[in-house]
Design brief:
By secondary structure, the chain is mostly helical. The chain has one domain. The chain is built from eight helices and no strands. Helix 4 runs antiparallel to helix 5. The longest helix has 27 residues. It is globular, with a radius of gyration of 16 Å.
Length: about 210
């Protein structure tokens, strides 16, 4: 029940972000299709797999990985500060798509925080800055990936519909305001926010 419900709330978060990014987004059509084409099969496979994985083991693994992301960004001071697109052709692109598939699998199987993995992968492998990476994450992962995961989990599980009004309202508003701040404040502010959020979420998931 909680898995599908959280996915639907995440879709609302992506919708709120999309509404803010429509005017100022730097999303490229070809690259967006690459992210969707490589990630969505992973999302579906992950959603079909997660119900067979012990919840605590999945949460602990996610916590360790999330904490690692935050610490990695802290110690890489120049990471994500400039836009230097790379690895868009050939074998390098195939490797990037394999990473997107794995991140999609995590997104489908674990409900909380996996968009952080997509953000860092887009920066580290494809050379995006934080502003662009967060835009791709909020719109493509938050809206499309999570909608797909919610649909699969809704079919094989149940949805707590009584939670929906508050979750949807809060997620849409939060997605919009978060995107607004990201656009206005720039890369350094986003980087520091990313690091703070990932470290806190990682610790919370590990400690329970």
């Amino acid at each position: 029940m909680a898995l599908a419900t959280h996915k639907i709330a995440s879709v609302a978060l992506g919708l709120g972000a999309t509404l803010r990014h429509l005017k100022e987004s730097h999303l490229e059509r070809r690259f967006s299709l690459i992210i969707l084409g490589a990630g969505l099969p992973g999302v579906i496979l992950g959603a079909l797999t997660i119900l067979h994985v012990p919840e605590r083991a999945a949460t602990l693994a996610l916590g360790v990985l999330t904490l690692g992301l935050g610490l990695y960004s802290v110690f890489k001071s120049s990471l994500g500060m400039t836009y230097q697109p790379r690895n868009r052709q050939g074998i390098a692109l195939a490797g990037g798509m394999a990473g997107l598939f794995f991140v999609g699998f995590l997104n489908g199987s674990i409900t909380s925080g996996t968009g952080l993995f997509l953000t860092l992968w887009l920066i580290r492998w494809f050379g995006l800055d934080y502003t662009r990476a967060v835009a791709y994450t909020l719109i493509l992962c938050g809206l499309v990936w999570n909608a797909t995961g919610a649909l699969v989990l809704g079919v094989i599980g149940t949805v707590a519909w009584s939670w929906m009004p508050v979750l949807l309202a809060g997620s849409i508003l939060g997605g919009y305001l978060g995107s607004h701040l990201a656009i206005r404040k720039g890369n350094l502010w986003i980087k520091r926010s990313f690091e703070t959020v990932t470290i806190l979420i990682g610790l919370k998931l590990i400690l329970g």
